[in-house]
């Protein structure tokens, strides 16, 4: 019989089709090998309700709370009068709280692994003081709000800056009360250490993302479910959840400053923007010559398989970009920005091009579209050696098994 473990995450950890869900899914698979896992999570996409049984197969027990974004936004506004981050009431649920407390008591749980700072609120209560708690912040979420503030104007800039300040204080509180606080890269961990007191710094660790190189492989069978002529198109690709602001701003900037010049040089080429829930400002990019906005797709791999290159020109970002790992595993040349390369700064491959300037991106993209495809085998080989999920998650066993102070 395995030791019981509480695992909380802010989104259902299936399907693994976007950044955080790829991570939470693979962590769940790994935890299930070592513990009897009790999973509590929110379902914020009605399309994901059908996957409850998939999660149930990987844990001892699971509990789901359907999150209604409009109601949650209203709840979030209540934070303005209490001096707390809007993020906390957005993910606050009496149903989740009751389940957490009941499960801990009935199953005699003494350890918890929490993904995303907003879920830490459920184990910061007097009833959970006995828990040995490990936090996966992934990245410094508060700093993303600072970036939003700096790129916005008027009242929204003030709201974003308030969220940055209140969330930063909350992150420090969590780190103080948890046994271990993890971040997705050494860079993120080092930055957070600079923000906390010296007694907390030794408790800050790295727990990085991996890549399923069997699934993301140029030889793996993948079926195109949508009616796009990708086998006949000459194109580059951007992948990612398109309701995520850093992705939105990246494709808008790239289309305006880079693609507008590339399409002049390569008039028969395409730029595929592949990802779920694109807002109006992204779907409108489809009116620009050569730009294809797919919306939700069943499988991103066919779009990677037939592309000449992947682009990830992130203007704001934190942590390792799964979109880059996936493209590298599919042997695609990748162009990204300095922000996009965090965690992979020392990747010694030839087909990973890093620049922040449109003037340097334009010739790189044009050259890829004008020539025969290049198989970036060195990128895949490096990932297979350094980025397997087992290798990246092995430290978690030590983090969870550490002796109490």
Would you give an account of this structure?
Helices cover 40% and strands 17% of the residues. It has 15 helices and 13 strands. It has helices at 19-34, 52-56, 69-77, 87-90, 94-106, 141-150, 154-177, 186-193, 245-265, 280-283, 301-305, 322-329, 358-370, 377-386, 389-401, and strands spanning 3-9, 35-43, 61-66, 111-115, 132-138, 180-183, 204-206, 234-239, 269-274, 291-295, 309-312, 334-336, 352-354. Strand 11, helix 12 (322-329) and strand 12 form a beta-alpha-beta unit. Helix 1 (19-34) crosses helix 15 (389-401) and helix 6 runs antiparallel to helix 7 (154-177). The two termini are 26 Å apart. 47% of the residues are buried. The mean pLDDT is 92.
């Amino acid at each position: 019989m395995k030791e019981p473990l509480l695992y909380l995450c802010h989104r259902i950890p299936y399907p693994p089709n976007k950044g955080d869900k790829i991570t939470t899914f693979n962590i769940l698979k790994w935890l299930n090998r070592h513990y009897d896992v009790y999973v509590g999570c929110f379902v914020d996409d009605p399309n994901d309700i059908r996957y409850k049984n998939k999660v149930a197969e990987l844990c001892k027990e699971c509990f789901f709370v359907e999150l209604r974004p409009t109601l949650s936004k209203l709840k979030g506004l209540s934070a303005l009068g209490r001096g707390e981050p809007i993020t906390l009431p957005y993910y606050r649920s009496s149903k989740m709280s009751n389940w957490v407390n009941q499960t801990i008591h009935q199953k005699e749980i003494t350890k918890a692994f929490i993904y995303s700072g907003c879920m830490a609120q459920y184990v910061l209560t007097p009833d959970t003081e006995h828990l040995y708690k490990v936090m996966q912040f992934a990245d410094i979420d508060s700093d993303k709000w600072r970036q939003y503030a700096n790129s916005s104007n008027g009242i929204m800039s003030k709201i974003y800056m308030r969220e940055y300040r209140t969330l930063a204080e909350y992150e420090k509180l969590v780190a103080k009360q948890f046994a271990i606080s993890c971040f997705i890269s050494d860079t993120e961990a080092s930055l957070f250490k600079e923000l906390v007191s010296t007694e907390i710094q030794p408790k800050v660790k790295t727990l990085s993302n991996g890549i399923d190189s069997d699934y993301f492989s140029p030889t793996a069978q993948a079926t195109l479910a949508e009616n796009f002529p990708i086998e006949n198109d000459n194109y580059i690709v951007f992948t990612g959840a398109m309701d995520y602001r850093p992705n939105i701003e990246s494709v808008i900037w790239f289309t305006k400053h880079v693609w507008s010049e590339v399409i002049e040089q390569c008039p028969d080429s395409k730029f595929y923007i592949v990802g779920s829930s694109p807002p109006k400002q992204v779907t409108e990019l489809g009116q620009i010559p050569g730009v294809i906005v797919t919306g939700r797709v069943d499988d991103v791999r066919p779009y990677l398989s037939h592309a000449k290159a992947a682009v990830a020109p992130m203007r704001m970002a934190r942590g390792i970009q799964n979109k880059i790992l996936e493209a590298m595993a599919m042997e695609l040349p990748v162009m990204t920005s300095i922000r996009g390369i965090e965690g992979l700064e020392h990747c010694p491959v030839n087909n990973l091009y890093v620049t922040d300037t449109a003037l340097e991106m334009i010739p790189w993209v044009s050259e890829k579209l004008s020539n025969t495809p290049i198989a970036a085998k060195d990128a895949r080989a490096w990932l297979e050696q350094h980025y397997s999920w087992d290798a990246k998650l092995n430290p978690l066993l030590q983090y969870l098994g550490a002796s109490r102070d």
